[in-house]
Amino acid sequence: MITGMNGQDFTLLMRVEQWLYREARLLDDRRYDLWLELIDDKIRYRVPSRGCVRQGHVKDFSTWSVERELEVPDSLPLIDDDLTGLRDRIARLQTGMAWAETPPSISRRLVSNVMIMDVDEGGRLSVHSTLFLHKVRGDSRVIFTAERRDRLVPAGAGFRLQERYVVLDEVVLAADNLSLLF
In a 3-state reduction of DSSP, which class is residue 7? Predict the structure, then answer.
């Protein structure tokens, strides 16, 4: 994690935040065509299922982590897509035949608590952020909150999303579907 920010670190953080805000705006505006331009060819986009672990089953709280709730045996991820999977998901949304998005949901994403955790030798950034996603469709309203763990790679003056790992705060989802992108 970057600590003791200097001017260069602060500038990088501002660039990353602006990139994340632009990405959120594109998704809220349903500009999936432009959003796909922000995606790296090697994208891995995952939303794991989360298990509910009771305190009585925890032997040692000093070694506890959220990761243990995500490593539930025999669980399947909610989403695990590559670029082809994301393109297929978006193509389906744009057909007008996806019942979960006909009519389309209205969404608002708020991205905050952005932290650059690491920058590797190749300039790839490990970025954590908090997402608040409000979805309205008809008289249905759903709120998602999550931690996003992203890998951004430099691309021209900006970045491309190479990996997104979304840790939802819910064990049991209140939503009827996961038709939106996080």
Answer: helix
pLDDT digits (tens, 9 = 90+) for 44-99: 999 998 776 666 666 666 666 666 667 666 778 889 999 999 999 999 888 877 77
Nearest in space to 120 (alpha carbons), one of 2, 16, 6: 2
What tens digit of pLDDT does each residue of 146-162 get?
999 999 999 988 999 99
The answer to the question of residue 125 being in a domain is yes
Structural domain includes residue 88:
yes
Structural domain count of the chain: 1
CB contact at 8 A, 77 and 46: yes
Which residues contact residue 95 at a Cβ distance below 8 angstroms, ignoring those fewer than 6 apart? none
Peptide bond into 103 cis (omega under 30): yes
> pTM, whole model, 2 decimals?
0.87
Residue 94: predicted pLDDT: 82
Give the CATH number for residue 66.
3.10.450.50
Query: Does the residue 175 lie in any domain?
Result: no
Residues 182 and 166 sit within 8 Å (Cβ to Cβ): yes
- Beta pairing partners, 181: none
Question: What pLDDT score does 71 carry?
Answer: 64
User: Between the CA of residue 36 and those of 32, 48, 175, what are the distances in Å?
Assistant: 6, 22, 25
